[in-house]
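Take a specimen:
=====
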Amino acid sequence: MVAVGSFMPWLDTVVGTVSGARGAGLWTFYAAMLGLAGALVPVRSLAVVQGAVLALVASVLPVWQLVHVYSMVGTAGWMPGPGLVLVLGGGVLAAVAVRQMATAPWPSRR
């Protein structure tokens, strides 16, 4: 979700759309690739750390973008685009997955 949403429109304005790739979307894409690597790594502690980085970046940057635009122009003339919502949703889901990985019992080795 984060990787796809990073390149979609983050803001819809009267003039046109603003793509996530022009700003913070690149950082969320990099974090998504790190999260993908964390999903594939067999070491659980590394997966938790990489997932936490993804969750942090994909949750904080969209909220910062919304606060920044709101502080500049208020609510007139723009609305969040689908990419911004998709990245924020992916960040929340990554945070839930990290919590589940961190609190699940460790498997015993034989």
Q: What stands out?
A: Residues 2-103 form one domain.
